[in-house]
Request: fold
Amino acid sequence: MIFPIIPAFSFLRKGGFVHISGGPTPLKQIICLSEEPWSASPGRTQQLVSRLKNTQVLYFSPAPNWRDAAFRKKGRQVKQNITTYILPPILPVDERFGGLFRMEQTKLARFISAKAARHRFRAPLLWTTSPEHVHLLDRLDYDGLIYDCDREWADLPLPWEGTLASTADVVFAASEDLVDRLSPCSPNIALLPNGGTHGLFSRHVPKKRPESARPVLAWVGDIHPGLDLSPLLYAAKARPDWTFLLLGRREGNPLLRSLSRLPNVVLRAQCPLMEVPEYLKDCRVLLNLLDQDQPDSDVVSSRMYDYLSTGLPIVTMLWPDQVEVFPDVVYAAHSNQEFLTLCQHALEEVSPWAMERRRSHGAAAAWSRRSEEVSRILETAGLL
Reply:
């Protein structure tokens, strides 16, 4: 299933590159304001900007906490054309504290501008990923604005996102609901779902095991406080003869202690993305759980696309009124009991067609394809 990029473009953008006759195409300079640090387990922003061709990127991510001093370190060159910086921490104050709020935003803008000047950036393209970045627009020098929205921002004032989207030359939205929500703010909006690392996960070859072997069912991803672990806890208690593997960073989930006490639950720390397939070689079913911090969200996670690329059966939880995007090859549950039942069905699956169909879905959503769509749209808009 290939997700279409919505051609809602009536781009009014002028300009673009100035090409030198007979000379090489100049690199397009991009300042990327990300909500996620540069990582060995890359998220959406890193996956997209790292694949853009003929670009020079300064990648800025927030400080982990307000006491962090990592912003004092030199920039880290992670690729030939990409340098990363950590922003200075700012006080968590809102607009009601007018002068102090503006002072903190000015501090961020001055830091970004200083790094841009050091790298000889002049009027770069500005890539934003959070409504909070709207406060930097009047404080930075840029030529061309992108807003990439991959989630609901229910905890931030609506006018922030509305202003950012209406100012942007291009808006990318990770789901159809996000497109519907942002369309009144911008005519230049495109559906850009998350993607997967298909080349890595499609190399997965399930082991042949004796029928007597305990089946392994796995979750891959952060175990944060908002992750609903109740279906997994229910299944682990009901089926002590199954092994449940949880692979990811643990961040204080209230049900984690109960899970860790069960003898058939195995917890493994987060590892680099390149190592994840090695952990999955013994798995027979992959599990997808709900994020209670994003209720009713229709955004398909990059995890799901990585899962699809393996070809393994997938059991996912859905919100009460949610419809599964891949009903032909994914087992979708709306209750803990249904989750348990479908895990059993997934373990009994024998259809090679379903495996190939899942891999086909994963291939269609590869990050390389998503990045190609981004480049095409930005070129159409005169931004690349």
Q: What stands out?
A: Residues 35 and 61 are 6 Å apart (CA to CA).
